[in-house]
Design a protein that fits this description.
This protein is α/β, with parallel strands linked by helices and 624 residues long. Helices cover 42% and strands 12% of the residues.
């Protein structure tokens, strides 16, 4: 088949023939990649070969522009605010069961609200695989429409005290989260609490019963289907078939099958249990938002939405026609991953989106805005294109596939305006030309990470940052400020084989330059004293200024930008020295398992906590 015909087919179906990656390298999609993606999109190359006729899916993907803008409160149009981002699982407290929970989140929000913070960001809290504790990555969820029960504060449940016993005592001191133990303990406590609810409230017309039935009615079929998946997942995992539906016997792989209908009839009570779990989780999340606002926060919770879902989870089982089964979401090569990345996530079908046959995307956005003042779209470029890797191919053999940007923006803007929720798009990495301008025109705030904001002459001055953005020092998969300053992240990446010896040496040399440039900028901004001596120290690997000394000036620099929002990482507030997560690793590094080195109850007594919060308040005072 002539290559030109594959190219025409690819263009007609939104597959990009070439792209420039984040390293500046121009790459062309291979013929094999284009064939694989066409097949994933449901285009039969063989049929076209015989008829020479082309599909015009690309034309259908051009949605009409909308006029609705994402919500922005009046006080933030010209004002500024600051807040904190945290990884909920990492919070250590004297009362939680070995993993951070919604009560910890509420108490942290209250503490930060009193310090002048206006929001508290958190990692995705999407539903994971409750029957498989080993699948704990918040960015590879089973469903983005529901909540993981692992964050339920079990000590707040009626009648849970005795059942819970002293479960927290043996779990409060470990450095890493033991998910298997945490889930097993929580499950027992949750089952005991549900049994009590059945005995005392269910069907009685009590306030609890009415609230539960109202929740069930409001969430309707979607909740019922999700609870059915959870029950099946639990059943199949116990029999060695795994928690994900791709490993189940064929008669259970379809929601509409007679076998599934029979299973539902036989397991009504267990399905009700999983429905109850969602009710409890959502009630506790709503309580967090209420307490955050009551503590003075003007935004409150800032929830993260993952870019995709696991291919064998609830969302793909419930709506298989809305996803591409034979493609995975990934990323092309960049400075951190020279071979690209395969995130192993199932992409929503662009055709289903453009034809209006997909309700999943709108449901995901709507669910995230129920109990939040802001949402973050992970990898926001997915609104216009996704780097997809066809089944059977490696990360370098993918290509970009177009998505109906205007239509997706209409959905986001409408829901944001209706729910009065701020939208932030994480626009880092390989960003298409004009994308950020389009986001800004629709009222969506961008992302600016200080360590990336460099030009050929050094770090960008605060005054040169864009206003329509959230500014931060790092993200969940970048080194903390302490790790970046000391360069320990470079050693970690070399140890894990992500960097060669020569690449690590080059990175250390670059980091030395970056430190010196940053100190120089701090001096220009009048944020450090004895700048000359500090700059000389920062230009060598020896006698570095202590991170605790440099941390406050750097945060003041961050707060000084005109960006509407500025976020401090909780890890930096408590002086965490390591890398919580390292991109491009799975088992090599304890991603999503590390706990903070200090108890929640002790955070407010830390000197760096008080000094950084004071610096943020000084630069970004809360308006009367």
């Amino acid at each position: 088949m002539p290559v030109t015909l594959i190219d025409k087919l690819s263009r007609a179906n939104g597959i990009s023939l070439a792209y420039t990656d984040a390293t500046g390298t121009r790459r062309r999609a291979s013929a094999a990649a284009k064939r694989g993606l066409l097949a994933a999109l449901g285009v039969s190359v063989e049929r076209v070969e015989g008829t020479q006729r082309l599909s015009h899916t690309g034309d259908r993907m051009r949605a009409k522009s909308g006029t609705t803008h994402a919500f922005l409160p009046d006080w933030l149009e010209k004002g500024r605010a600051w807040g904190v981002t945290c990884q909920l699982y990492s919070i250590r407290s004297t009362r939680n069961g070995g993993i951070g929970d919604f009560e910890d989140l509420a108490r942290l929000a209250e503490l930060l609200g009193q310090q002048g913070a206006d929001f508290l960001g958190v990692n995705p809290i999407h539903a994971l695989f409750f029957s498989d504790p080993g699948r704990y990555s918040p960015y590879s969820p089973s469903s983005r429409r529901f909540i993981t029960p692992i964050y339920i504060a079990t000590d707040l449940l009626d009648g849970a005290g005795t059942a819970r016993g002293c479960e927290h005592l043996s779990l409060s001191h470990g450095e890493l989260i033991d998910y298997a133990d945490v889930v097993a303990r929580k499950r027992r406590t949750l089952e005991a609490a549900f049994a009590r609810f059945e005995r005392t409230d269910l069907g009685t017309g009590s306030a609890q019963d009415v609230d539960f039935e109202t929740y069930r009615a409001h969430n309707g079929r979607a909740l019922e289907e999700f609870a059915t998946f959870e029950t099946l997942s639990e059943f199949m995992a116990a029999r060695g078939h795994g928690s994900g539906w791709l490993g189940w016997p064929s008669e259970f792989r379809s929601l509409a099958s007679p076998a599934v209908a029979e299973f539902k009839r036989e397991h009504t009570n267990r399905t009700l249990f999983h429905t109850w779990l969602q009710w409890i989780a959502e009630r506790q999340l709503a309580n967090v938002q209420r307490r955050a606002l009551s503590a003075g926060m003007r935004i409150g919770l800032y929830l993260d939405i993952a870019v995709g879902v696991a291919p064998d989870g609830a969302d793909t089982w419930c709506a298989p026609d809305e996803v591409l089964a034979d493609a995975r979401i990934g990323a092309p090569p960049d400075d951190f991953n020279r071979l690209g990345q395969d995130w192993g996530l199932a992409p929503i079908s662009p055709r289903a989106l453009s034809q209006g046959t997909s309700g999943t995307f709108a449901s995901v956005i709507a669910c995230a805005t129920r109990h939040a003042g802001a949402i973050r779209l992970d990898h926001a470029m997915a609104l216009t294109r996704l780097y997809l890797i066809p089944k059977g191919h490696g990360t370098l053999d993918g290509a970009y596939v177009a998505y109906p940007l205007a239509e997706l923006l209409n959905i986001i803007s409408d829901i944001s305006a209706n729910h009065r929720v701020i939208v932030i798009g994480e626009d880092l990495g390989t960003v298409p030309r004009g994308f950020r301008e389009t986001m800004r025109a629709r009222g969506i705030q961008g992302y600016r990470v200080l360590v990336f904001e460099r030009t050929e002459t050094g770090f960008r001055r605060p005054r040169d940052y864009t206003r329509s953005a959230l500014a931060c020092i790092g993200t969940h998969d970048l080194p903390t400020l302490q790790a970046w300053w000391r360069g320990s992240d470079i050693g970690d990446r070399q140890r894990l084989g992500i960097l060669t010896v020569d690449e690590a040496a080059s990175a250390r040399a670059s980091r030395t330059t970056e430190r010196a440039e940053l100190v120089s900028l701090l001096a220009v901004e009048g944020l450090v004293g004895a700048a000359g001596a500090m700059e000389r120290d920062a230009s060598t690997e020896q006698s570095l200024p202590d991170p605790a000394t440099i941390s406050v000036p750097i945060h003041k620099l961050l707060a000084r930008t005109p960006c509407r929002l500025a976020a401090v990482q909780l890890e930096d507030l408590v002086g965490y020295e390591g890398c919580m997560n390292i991109a491009g690793t799975i088992d090599e590094h304890p991603n999503w398992r590390q706990r903070l080195p200090v108890m929640l109850e002790d955070i407010s007594s830390l000197p760096q906590f008080a000094s950084i919060c004071a610096a943020m308040r000084e630069e970004r005072p809360r308006a009367p």
